[in-house]
Amino acid sequence: MRVDFHTHIIPENFTDLTRHLSGDRWPMLERTCACGANIMVGGKVFREVTDQVWSPGKRISDMARESIDIQVLSPIPVTFSYWAPAEEALTLASIQNDFIAETVSQYPDKFVGLGTVPLQDVEVATREMDRCIHELGLKGIEIGTNVNGNNLDDSSLISFFEMAEKWEVPLFIHPWETLGKERTPRHNLMYTVGMPSETALAGASLILGGVLEKFPGLKICFAHGGGSLPYLLPRLDQGWKVWPHLRLLNNPPSYYARNFYFDSLVNDPINLKYLVDLFGHDRILMGSDYPFLLREVPPGKVIDDTHGLNQDQVEAMLWRNALRFLNIPIKAGVKG
Questions:
Q1: Which sequence ranges form a coiled-coil region, renumbered to this chain (predicted)?
Q2: Residue 123: half-sphere exposure toward Cβ, Cα within 13 Å
Q3: How far apart are CA 73 and CA 81, in angstroms?
Q4: Domain coordinates of the chain in residue numbers?
Q5: For residue range 235-285, what is the model confidence (pLDDT) as tens digits?
Q6: Cβ distance 81 to 118 under 8 Å?
């Protein structure tokens, strides 16, 4: 059995749903052919996509070919729209959450859904999280790595994390609006360097800002193997050691990092083995970033190619950890 924890989806009629919103920053889906489109932002091409990004049928066909049993569906981060008025962003979030919930209801054996919330207003975000989990039946919430330049330890977000812990809502943190954007337009460095760096900053902020110490029950998974965070932990620990006047924590950062989960999208078995050795195999969820160009093909390849793993570790990373993270009971008798 294989569960792909990291996949993205968007409604095919997305542009029609956003035309009535004010301003020109809203992402739109501009069709280029029967099976392709551009995601447009501010009149410019943000990303080229295929019908894989909106067609459940196409996804199921790909899943069969690549031996994937279940995909976990999440919104495309460019649609977070934290910059927008909260109520308009809520409209967009609600549209996507309803679409994902409906897709899951049509294909309950193939898909599990994550929702999105307008984090620029924590009260509104918490209300929509409540609806996603307790009304729509979605299994978690995807959030960005910052909110309009504020790191995730910002005081305005504390009540959101408090309720996520109380309701046992899994959070999938995905990079967006990356740091250093003015220096990364060439060579697509925003994707290859900016995103991993942005993810590291988000993780370090949650740790050093005391969010994990305050809410130890939070379930958080980082995209792309946590970016550069795992490799920076020794440096973060050293900073904690030599700057005691800055400490907000009772333990070094690496102590709290062990509470995180990470998807397996690290592109190299050496990197995956490092994650396993550092955090344990039970903290890693197979994720491919389907259907984008940087995705892993076939999903789970890096796990398959990593030497020194036993069958139990492999099966845990390929599917069991994802279901456990999402609070989905594992049926008796189900095996990989």
A1: none
A2: 1
A3: 18
A4: 81-325
A5: 999 999 999 999 999 999 999 999 999 999 999 999 999 999 999 999 999
A6: yes
